[in-house]
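Need O-antigen/teichoic acid export membrane protein's 3D structure for a figure. Predict it.
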Amino acid sequence: MNAVPTARAERRASALIRAGALSMLALVAVGVTRLVHGSLTSRATDQATYGLVGIMLAASMIASLLLPGGLSSGIAKFVAFHRGAGDVAGAWAAHRFLSRLGLASSVGLGVLSALLVGQLHQLDLLDAISLALLTTTYSLYTLDKAAMYGHGLVAQYARIELGTSLLAIGSTVIVIITGQSAYLLPLCLGYGSFAVLCRRQIRRHRRAEGVTEQGSFDRRQVLTFTILGSIGTLASAGFLQATQLLAGHFAAPAEVAFLAATVALIAPLYFLPRAMALVLFPAMAGAHGSGDRSAVRQQVDASTRGLAVAMTPVFLVGLLAAPLILGLYGGSEYSDGANVLRLMLCASYFGILQVPSVNALASGAPAQARIPVLSAVVGCLAGLSVVIATAGPLGAAGVAVGYLVGTAITALIPVVVVWRIHQLTWAGVLTRCVMLIGAGALITELDPLRSWSWSAAGITGVVLVVALVVLWGDLRRLLSLLRQGRTPLADQDPDPQTGPPALKGVAP
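Structure prediction for O-antigen/teichoic acid export membrane protein:
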């Protein structure tokens, strides 16, 4: 009696694992691109110039969150929701509407960001044009990436991401070798090429599906979600980028460079959670569309446990080896920013743990979708209050403390809400992981860890072994879960449906 549901669940898990692996590969390419770009730029310029490059990058990222961030979330959610409900025409109608809004807002925000930052930091004409192009192309990049996932084109997305990342890296190398100062143009080229290729692939996919009728969707609900999504992403992801702008106001130029380097370095730590989010958000939206609440529970439970267990050892190494990491990234003069990096690492740990819970809530009913937005706004306001109080005397470290406080608050609310809604048993694993991170942060106060040495390397090795021993049982359960997703049964096609599932009237 339970063979078919079990086969479907395992097949779904296998598909998510494959999609997650492809997403991980693509995001590694994205992270390597930003690391190579940042490292080469920091070594080719002085700290003041690199700090300005960081400010322009942050401004473009923040501008892309004002409306394109919410629009991209809307595309990923409502395209997948309508597909999960069997309404392919509705999925294409929602995509077309949101994509047009995204194109117009991307161009407008590109011009606006160049004008504002140009006035505040006296940008020359080349930098202003580069900033406008980067804001526009990055905004389109986020929109089209979401569309690819919403339509289930994960493999095609991964190939395009890899190719355009190589293009951006090659362009960066050329700019540095030739001594040019157009440091943002390689990223513009990569993101712009990505948008062109994705839109071409999406048009092919629509023709292949042969959708001719005009679909319908709840425009008011879509716009409401888009606005809330923009507010939430601006208050969470925008806060991270704003740390560089805040440092530019409160801290010395060298400390601005520390924060710019830190933001670039912590980006790779989001590879796994972002890969999960790219796959899970449309998958959860589709599950909500088909009325499968148990699938949402299974996905948020497994992904939260997986993130906590897999990322804790990585963050511990980052905390203890912070001086070495910064020195390798930008040179020996960057090692002085180790405490800033450590504070931002602790903040990012909480930001990563919340990702599955945020996706579970945002992909659900409107009342649930508002919870991550509220938590992000509350956390951002609290963090900014701490920045105002501490950044004056502490400089960049004060900005990092504010970001840590704000991110911890932002993460706590959705995790607790999902914990209670789905009655999950996370207490043991989350307690172990958070206590290990806390212990690692305390150990960094030891004198041998204030700089990198053989003693610091030995301490790091011992702490890592202890962490693996503490988490060994959780790691074994995680590996067992991954193996179950690859069983032969998961590759069998369950009994075919007699037709597409009916739209059950469940609002996303």
